[in-house]
Amino acid sequence: MKKLMLVVLIGVLAVLTACGSKQADGGGDKKKITVGFGVGTYEEQFRQSILPILEKQGYTVEIKTFSQNMQVNPAMKEGSIDASVFQSTAYMEAINEEINADMVGIAYVPGAPQGLYSVNHTSLDDVKDGTTVAVPNDPVNQERALRILEELGWIKIKEGAGVADFNINSMEPDKFNIDIKILDPAQILVSLQDVDYGVVNGNYIANAPDRKITDALKIENTPMQHRIIVSINKKDEDTQWAKDLKAAYESKEFEEYILGLEKYDGFILPEAWENN
């Protein structure tokens, strides 16, 4: 009888230990998470303000930075990262469909709007037929960029043009016959001397030591679908770590950090901060 009780006790302890290990490392209440970023300012925001908030709550966080944005979401799908901070809702939904992923957004992040910049012109009045304008090569950011040109009356976007499948054939000339140059988003800022104008994603401007978002000749009015989000796999939506990550991004502490730095002037701020 004593041997039987000992065996049962050992079995119970083994189950409890296994459950505790699962909860600590892989369950919904785990305290170790991995967050992925593309190149840009969002990792710096996280490292300097969000990370300390999470560490105070007992989290151990691994930060992974990818050299290309297209690498981030496959890593999320395969489970090598738990969350990412680099993309908009529109981009996420397009990738969900493309790679059969199931990501959701849980919080908005202070995001940098796209803007039209130039080192060769000080005014938009210099535009004419043949003016060269650099725009991003990925469909979502390219659509955003060309909407800026459409608002200026330089081009027209064809009726029915999508977002995920947007391409240069989705536009046509309006007032001018603009020469569109398609470049990797990270290359446009350093290539401004080679074109008349360029539409630059704001996070690259914020990371440049001699640039400000407010220096743009035209800043987009960023729609909600193009604002930067914290994204996770849908299966993790109700986990405690996801709730704590969301709360950190919506916290007064993070708001004060962003508002205290001049480099974030011109960023689009989360509406959740209105409740702080």
Automatic annotation (TrEMBL):
A family per Pfam: Lipoprotein_9
Keyword Glycosyltransferase in annotation: no
Localization per record: Membrane
Position of the signal peptide: 1-24
Membrane topology: Lipid-anchor
PROSITE patterns in UniProt: PROKAR_LIPOPROTEIN (PS51257)
Keyword annotations from UniProtKB, A to Z: Lipoprotein, Membrane, Palmitate, Signal
Matches recorded under InterPro entries: Lipoprotein_NlpA (IPR004872)
Family to which this protein belongs: Belongs to the NlpA lipoprotein family.
Family annotation (PANTHER family): D-METHIONINE-BINDING LIPOPROTEIN METQ, METHIONINE-BINDING LIPOPROTEIN METQ
Annotated protein name in UniProt: Methionine ABC transporter substrate-binding protein
Species name: Paenibacillus brevis
